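Hi support team,

I submitted a single chain yesterday and got back a structure, but I'm not sure I'm reading the token output correctly. Could someone confirm the output below corresponds to the sequence I sent? I've pasted both exactly as they appear in my results page.

Thanks,
R.
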Amino acid sequence: MITPRANRLQIKDVTPDDKEGWQWHLQHAIRRASDLSNALGLPLEDIKTDFPLLVPRPYLARIEPGNPRDPLLLQILPRWEENLAVPGFTRDPVGESHLSDTPPGLLQKYAGRALVTLSGACAINCRYCFRRHFPYEKHQTSSDSWQDIVAFLNQDDSISEIILSGGDPLMVNDRRLAALLRGIEEIPHIDTLRIHTRLPVVIPQRITASLLESLALSQKQIVMVLHINHPNEIDLSVRTAAASLREAGITLLNQTVLLQDVNSDADTLCHLSKTLFGAGVLPYYLHALDRVAGAAHFDVDEKLGSSIVKELQNTLPGYLVPRFVREEPNAPAKQWIDPR
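Hi R., thanks for writing in. Yes, this is the structure output for that exact sequence:
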């Protein structure tokens, strides 16, 4: 059965004139400091860390050449501080390593929801990533494990929402993703599918006609949570991708990580909320940094974060103020941080 939203959808690629599709951009992403240096006209050091450089060219095009403090550059540039051991910053900051992984690839952190690590791959390596040390080889799905996951979910009617995560779940190709969606469609007590992804932002070409068609045909409520930290990440191609997703009936939310020197001021976050709303995306969460080893230089004092959010409350309408939260190991939900 085709839903009304599929009936009114005009299926088309986001960038039909782009000869290089999303997989081409993955294959030709920047992986060496020397290439990044040449592209931006900057003398960048080749810092060796356990988390490699990876930045696709559509995202690279939004970085200001010659600016070593560009807020997008700071999110993807390896720095020597990543090799420092800082007390309180661990390889498993949100306590996922001890969670049950039965069947493989399925994690249950919160009541009523189940998280599936659909892919361990990403299109960009954000230096503050809380799963930069996550053992994906032990926690991701295969064709066999997906069948086990569907069977498990069919038996547990306490779960009403599936969250596709990773890595990035949209790193899975359209054909396989469509098959996975058909499996979810058959589970009657699942009413919401949530997809956490950065791909429509870093490679908007990922929003293909076939992906849009698969999403539009779903009878579930689909929520896509994007990850945008700075207004400069939103260009025309991202706006176009967001518009195509909305036309497919997808609810678009955004979560932001509060990052030192990237967005750690009220003016930037105010601009971000307004730019998101202009692109049809609603601000959802402002995350305090997950204290992952290698990312301590991004940390923002919680009191400063609270004061920034308080300033947002005094400046923006309530629907544009994201909830300031922190994820704590073993907590039953994300913990709200009260602005003060």
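A quick pointer for reading it: The chain has one domain: 4-13+20-336. Let us know if anything else looks off.

Best,
Support desk
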